[in-house]
Every structure is written in C-alpha cells, then in structure tokens.
Amino acid sequence: MRIEDLKTPCYVVDEGKLEENLRVLKRVKDNTGCTILLAQKAFSCFAEYPLIGKYIDGTTASGLFEARLGKEEMGLENHVFAPAYKEEDVKELVKICDHMVFNSFSQLEKHKDSLEGVSVGMRINPECSTQEDHAIYDPCAPGSRLGVTKENFKEEWLPYLSGLHFHTLCEQNSDDLKKTLDAVEEKFGKYLKGLSWLNLGGGHHITREDYDLELLESCIRHMQDKYGVKVYLEPGEAVALNAGYLVTEVMDVVDNGIKTLILDASASCHMPDVLEMPYRPPLKDSGQPGEKPYTYRLSSCTCLAGDVIGDYSFDQEIKPGDKLYFMDMAIYSMVKNNTFNGMPLPSIAVMDQTGECRVVKEFGYEDFKNRLS
C-alpha cells in the first residue's frame, strides 16, 4: 500500500533515507577504521536491524532489555552503559555483551568479580559543556551524575579498565566534538596510552547536511594515532535522522478563538520529545504561522490541555478526514511512546525505495492492558 492508505496513527520508516544515512556512516568507518554502533535508545526498530548491520558494527544499550534486543536481533558487537547495574542484570549482561561501561568506581568495585569475558570501561565527565539549547541533555552540567570527573578519577583502578567512554553531545556538529576532545586530552590523556579503546559516545549529527565529516574523521585519526586506541562512535539519531514519518488523521476542528485541529496522534503519547525538549516537529507541506493562508494549532484527542504540537499554516483549508505527515519521526518516538489516556500506540510500517509500505507491527487493547494490573 501507499503511505496515504495506512491506517492512522502510524510510524513509517523510510528505508531509502535510512540506507542513505548508513552509507554516510560507512564512509566514516572506511576512511578512519573506527567502529560505529547503533544507540538503541534513539531507534530500536529491530525490523531494520538486518539492513543496519550491513553497514555498521553493532549496537549499544542503556540497560538489560536493550542489550538483549541488540544481541537477539543484530547479533554483532554489543555494548552497554548504565548509571548503575543490578547484580542479577550483570550476571546476564556479561553473557551477551562485549563491552560494559561503568559510571563510577564504586559500581566497578561492586561488580568487579563478575566481569570475566567482557571489556570494561569507565565513563568520564570532561566537564566541558557545549550545550546551549537543550540543558536537559547536558551531561557536563554542574553536579551531573553522569561520568567520573578528573577530581574523582581513581588511578588505582586502571588495571581493571580497557577503555574510557564519554557522551556529552546532543544533535551537534564535529566542532563541539573537537572542543570536547581537547578537554578529554587535557584531563584524561595521560591514562589513554595504557588503554585499548576510547568511546566518543553519541549526539554526533553525522548525517545532517551541514555536518563537517572531514573534521570528525580528523578527530578520530588524531586520537587513534596519538594514543593507539580503537575509537568507537555511538550515533543514535544520525542512523535514522529524517528517515521516518508519523501519519495522523484530522478528527475535528475546534475554534475557541484559535482554530485547532484535533488529531489521532499525540505529542504527549506518540512524540514526547515535542514537549520534553521542547521543539516544533517538521510537517509536510506546511509553513510557519501566518506564512500560508490557513493557520491552525495542532493538538490531540487526549485530555491533557497542554498536549499541543504547535502552530502551522497550510495552502488550503484543513478538514476532518485529512491526513497530515510529521517528518523526522523515526528517532525518539517509538522508543518513548506511551498509552496515557488509553491512547492506542501507532502501528509501525516500513516504506521501500519505491514508496510501497508494509505494516510490520500493529498494537491494540492488549498492549495497553498488559502494562497494567
């Protein structure tokens, strides 16, 4: 079927754009020899893992369930980081993961006797904040719980470590990576020459049109050549950037001083980052308020008064039954959605390079009920 024929709401993964992104990532791999992993916290549509695994090296997880998914569905390198681990989780993680990264030396000390067979790393905090727009995503903010600072780094634990890991970026270009690496070298460089690898984390918008790939590759080569370490990258958004849509239907138009479209999709339930960051998601064939003849506020059929997606304008009047297409909806949507108000979860479809769609997952009442008791 075609995208306009899908039952709504529905996420649609654009395989053509996904593969385009993957080719860019493979270029970085081929040009530098680095290893690239999918950060599943941004995109966990495992129906696409066979395709993704043709271009990059594996997955990284934020806990046991993501680690299991990466192992079962991609089966390549499998890394995990969590601020803390439960003992029962560690027993399973060491069986399915190649690398385990710890957030503190107290956690390493607690679990050190259970880590046979995995490459152990420590997350560091270079205390180099490059965030300007999204403070909620700044791991280098004062008092951050994420990563060991220079002051708290315990050299006596180095014999247990194979590598260091940092993750400080969010939707950023390679100039911010370069700035961060300067801080990492200044504060932790003396430890790197005795280690095997350095993980540069995620937040690199590698597949964005204006991203400086040459600077990224230069940064990777510099760290490899100077310290003799293997370099890992963990992009999440970059893998599926602009590679998905959320198709929704207009259910009603309410005019209480503002013309508001009531949709069967929800910011709160189906694209939580719209409220959390916040941001205004791109919408096909729309403009800024007042830019086109017809301006509407887009909202949902939940009871949350603030479940508002944003204000958009259109070339023609919008009516109940019309379909709207939110773009860049592959990332941080399926992985963060919820069933507040008993809202149905959107189906998941994939669209091939000819525009043909096939539904790979549908959800119903039992998916809502089984989360409860």
Characterise the protein shown here.
The protein has 11 helices and 16 strands. With 373 residues, it is of the alpha/beta class. The protein folds into 2 domains: 129 residues, Lyase, Ornithine Decarboxylase, Chain A, domain 1, CATH 2.40.37.10; 208 residues, Alpha-Beta Barrel (TIM Barrel). Strands 1, 10, 11, 12, 13, 14, 15 and 16 form an 8-stranded mixed beta sheet that branches. An 8-stranded parallel β-barrel has the order 2-3-4-5-6-7-8-9, surrounded by 5 helices. Strand 12 and strand 13 form a beta hairpin. Helix 3 runs parallel beside helix 4 and helix 6 runs parallel beside helix 7. The longest helix has 19 residues.
Q: Can you summarize this structure?
A:
By secondary structure, the protein is α/β, with parallel strands linked by helices. The chain is built from 11 helices and 16 strands. The strands form 2 sheets. Strands 1, 10, 11, 12, 13, 14, 15 and 16 form an 8-stranded mixed beta sheet that branches. It has an 8-stranded parallel barrel with strand order 2-3-4-5-6-7-8-9, surrounded by 5 helices.
